[in-house]
Give the backbone structure.
Amino acid sequence: MSTAQQIPDILSPEFATDPYPAYRIMREHAPLIWHEATQSYIVSRYEDVEYVFKDRHGEFTTENYDWQIEPVHGKTILQLSGREHAVRRALVAPAFRGSDLQEKFLPVIEGNSRELIDAFRHTGSADLVADYATRFPVNVIADMLGLDKADHDRFHGWYTSVIAFLGNLAGDPEVAAAGERTRVEFAEYMFPIIRERRENLGDDLLSTLCAAEVDGVRMSDEDIKSFCSLLLAAGGETTDKAIGGIFANLLTHPEQLEAVRRDRGLIDRAFAETLRYTPPVHMIMRQSATEVTLSGGTIPAGATVTCLIGAANRDGSRYRDPDRFDIFRDDLNTTTAFSAAADHLAFALGRHFCVGALLARAEVEVGVNQLLDALPGLRPADGFDPAEQGVFTRGPRSLPVRFTPSAA
Ligand code: HEM
């Protein structure tokens, strides 16, 4: 096993600017690293990250979320295991797929996307990150829950501090304190709404959560509040970065953008390849329940394991020419890319596989279609620099574009 000395540290500015060269060195020369600052073992190879996520032998838990997110969200589905997790998942999963998604929530997705686009389509220029990506998914979640539109800006503020908490690998006390304040404010906001909604069930996601019952089990007010808080981060931040990512990748590969513009059936391919090439979530942690051997090294029981999705998804032993963005690659399965049978690791795999993957896909499909329709001649503006930011979650900082103005 290696120590991190000869490799750019995952907390260094150099790594934050461009982690991909460091990922390569890790995969090739130091596939298992003890990282002192985060007190965790880092794995980077596709086969190791896949092994940890699939957890076929019950060697890993998600107890890491007790300290990683419970202080800001309360206890969530991510921390549950076994039957308790299966029951909770069965309660919430139907809302994010099938007829609920198609009939109830697709109009919500389309309406929220259109509203944002209508605000800039006539101007001929926009920043697809600030004006669209950072707003769209969080507005969708708030609207799906049936919360007041007037509160979207407050939601955006909470969302920003929750994300900062999650990405606070260096342990900045101010970021931690802001995250904990958000927990209090969000609870004060949500509890009266949950109590009121239980009395007046509607057609929204919050009503579904209030009424859902599996084996006689219902979610408590605290459970619902924590789940909504998790949705802000899990459903907002990730899809925000995914939309930024798909446009960054397509705008820097104009021939692939043109192919997608002409054949919208390629959006799924472009999204799947974006999830592989520039995943929104670059690292996910686990806790070892027993001693585990990986890539020739040993992880003791009770240790934190940091799984580098961003590195594993560019493993040359899994993908040909892994540092090339290619929506036509034949070694990435697009059909299974949004299910637990996915062969990229961006949604993790196994029991905690992203429950919102199909919702994310619907948002990206609607978003890309509407933006391409409303913004003819879409191209990078002067000063366009799709540099990514973020270490835990990652996406383009800004995407200034120009296009031919169009009326709504
Ligand atoms: C491209 C967008 C998305 C990405 C990359 C993503 C990524 C992930 C990942 C990596 C996990 C696994 C965490 C772990 O195993 O520790 C996860 C779980 C989860 N995601 Fe997503 N996600 C996305 C969109 C969404 C959306 C739109 C929602 C909203 C419904 C959502 C809700 C969740 C929830 C609730 C879990 C926990 C599932 C469980 O513990 O069983 N995600 N997501």
Remarks:
- DSSP finds 17 helices and 13 strands in the chain.
- The longest helix spans residues 221-251.
- Residues 62, 77-78, 89, 96, 230-231, 234-235, 238-239, 242, 280-281, 284, 346-348, 352, 354-356, 359-360 surround protoporphyrin IX containing FE (CB under 6 Å).
- The mean pLDDT is 94.
